[in-house]
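Q: Got a minute? One more chain.
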Amino acid sequence: MGEKTSDPEAPSLSHHESSISIEKQERDAATAREWARDMDQSTTTNSKLKNPLAALSREQLLSDVEAFAKEKDLEHILDDLRKGALVAQDPRAFEQMDELTENEKELLRREKTHRWSQPFMMYFMTVLCAGSAIVQGMDQTAVNGAQEFYFAEFNVTDTWLQGLLNGAPYLCSAVIGCWTTAPLNRWFGRRGCIFISCFISFAASFWMAAAHTWWNLLLGRFLLGFAVGAKSTTTPVYGAECSPANIRGALVMMWQMWTAFGIMLGYIASVAFMDVSHPTIPGFNWRLMLGSTAIPPFFVCMQVYFCPESPRWYMMRNRYHDAYKALCKFRPSTFQAARDLYYIHAALTVEEKLREGKHLFHEMFTIPRNRRAAQSSFFVMFMQQFCGVNAIMYYSSSMFREAGFDTRMALVTSLGCGITNWIFAMPAVYTIDTFGRRNLLLTTFPLMCIFLLFTGFSFYIPDQTSRTACVATGIYLFMIVYSPGEGPVPFTYSAEAFPLYIRDIGMSFATATTWGFNFVVSLTWPSLNKSFTPTGAFGWYAAWNCFGWVFCYFCLPETKALSLEELDQVFSVPTTKHINHYRAMLPWYVKKYLLRRDVPPQKQLYDYY
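A: Always. Here it is, folded:
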């Protein structure tokens, strides 16, 4: 063996430095082992979840299908189940399958070439989900105009009480509503949960409209919170479980767009009823504003039981005949219904095995991959509120009045916020999958910060016309950049960040986060505005947008168009490694985007397998 030679130019290490280096190497090695262990476990898990049929031989698959049909008394559709299982096992190979007729192959081709060609019931279900989202949005903003009148009628001058009246639904939703979703779904099904939540919205609307004291109004608004949490969690799940995979993402994304439409309707109700009066009923205008929110939930309640229940929910209750009937209404053919029936059954079997003997809420925070998903979901949901949007949604009329508008013009100008929010939420269906979740946030956080500062400092303009014009412009510009960014990203991001086996509880956690901080914003704005002045209050939320950009850049992984395995790899990267990578990348971004230099391709943090 050759003798080792030392490099004369190599730096020498002292004993202390050497021990520190060894300790660091040991820590890095331990981190690497932990990361590799998580990756091995998640790879095995998600290979099953991605397609639980892929690893089976043809003989084993067909044998399992026959046993399934016999066990569930579905032997009358055994032929469709066999063909459907073979297609589900390898969806790309259907052209070479002799078992399929030419008509069945054409149906499978149309799934890709005519993905929006769906049965009537699929569109009917989509209208139901859109109606539920409209209920959600209208419940949020009808109070914007109504508060301009009921504060005076009930002599509510304390800013904390004003905030509590407006924020009561979101307190109830965060503490109770979101966490009652699971038992409501378990006992009554997806349709039952939507019906109950919309019926509560319907009843609460009349309660609020008939309130004769502030505490009576507070109880009505607190009751509304039972509906807010359950509805916002269940409706997207119901839509996703009924939809075919090729349009599922787009339908789930429409939740935010139709919520924005409902937000606009809440502003329209304020403008429509602001001058209405009654000789014997005090506050008739604000009572109509709040009472009008009973209209959308009434129609949802009338419609919901004309839609089939979620096939997945039926199967979780071992009601396979009902699940098959529901799928036949949601799919173009019985063959496709049988395919999805067996595939969902196989996926549920794997998920049930994964859940056995596990404390899911505990695992969400103790397993590093799950904890990072919870951290990222918490961040996007928290920032959806602390970017300042709901301070504007709930108090824009007061903001415009403080800027110099009279009450009438303040309500009309607030309507512009709702229209802007809805119009610019539409492109998000395209941009969220084109530009990515992370890039949308990195682009919109600085812009929201700038427009909030512009709005806040506009209150210093001495001329009233210029002041009101600048305040309105700043708020409108803020809504334009919010709508495709922090508007749709949080729910989309949270829905895909968690592993499938804890996704239900993960979404409950994420939804409770957004409604909890929604309550904080609505509770504190009146006092914040009074203590900080409008300039300081807008500056406060501008600062949070700066924080949002920093955290997003250093700590938030991208989830756009990633498979289950790739998502596991992304969230298995330690946060410190994520921070160090993007810190090292800062000079690269400066050279490429600011100095406009030619630079080598950026170093990748993830190597997808």
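A: The CA atoms of residues 526 and 595 lie 44 Å apart.
Q: Perfect, thanks.
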